[in-house]
Design brief:
330 residues; alpha+beta; Jelly Rolls; Phage tail protein beta-alpha-beta fold; 13-stranded mixed sheet; 3-stranded mixed sheet
Amino acid sequence: MTKVRDIIEAYFSKNQPEDLQKSFVLWLCEARDSLEKDEVLFGIWENIQADADASTEQSFRDVMAKASGESTSHLAVRRAWKKWSRAAAVLLLPLLSMALTYVYMQHHNASQNADLQWTECIVPNGELRSVTLPDSSKVQLNAGSILIYPQHFGRTRQVYLNGEAYFSVTHNRQHPFIVKTGDLNVEVLGTVFDVSAFANDEQSFVTLESGKVNVQFRDNRHPAVTLSPNEQVCLNHIKGTVEKRTVNVAPVIAWTQGNLIISRLRIEEIARIIERKYNLKVYVNSGRYPNELISMKLMHDEGVSEMMEILQDLVPKLKYKIENDELYIY
């Protein structure tokens, strides 16, 4: 599965916060990868077996009427609609309305002379990537991660993350730095920390190496958590729980050196890590290992075969087979 498909399918898999909806739609309307975006959108539409009725199309015309004669970003949205037509209406009308409002506010804000331009960094499975942000903050992105950020920061430095990233933030007390994920807001001034928030993982983590961060939860069911160095907060999406604990940071950020340290994970969770690290599609007979909690360490120069041999030592009944780009665990 490509990163474009990952972004779109992850987006439609659950309700997203308003600010992520805005950044998603602006990204979706860009010309880059337009053919693949079209293909994925029509695939989703066909799966839900929906169509745009007259009221939907009229609603869209009302939205577009507000855009007449406005900025080039509005025109991009209009071109996108013309291209995706009736199928896109069912999926995108609420999102396009929100994006249009966002662009409209920017266009009429006297303090801004141009629309905000977004940059997305999409890291394929099997790779790591480093990014320098407009304020000189450094970010290292893990495999299978997506970072979206503006080309120029405003009063608040906001970035959007799906995946895992290690941040070294340039200190600026007048301009707070905020990492936004589907479930968390992490606010800092200047510090070093790790955020792991993959859309399809059961848990999200924020781990602090130095400085101080404030973690807010988007569902408002949990109070904000402030972390000091060597502390971690874990949000469990399945149980709906939040846990703050003291940790050794080194194993958490081992991935930045290409190493892998796994602590008490189920085989299904390890399968997702394998997919990202080695760019393989993994199939697991999940019913065979329901109670196995696995811990292991893998160095950067060890491949998937070495990893599977270690797993076989830890889980003696485990068997596996690699065929082309697919791994079967049974």
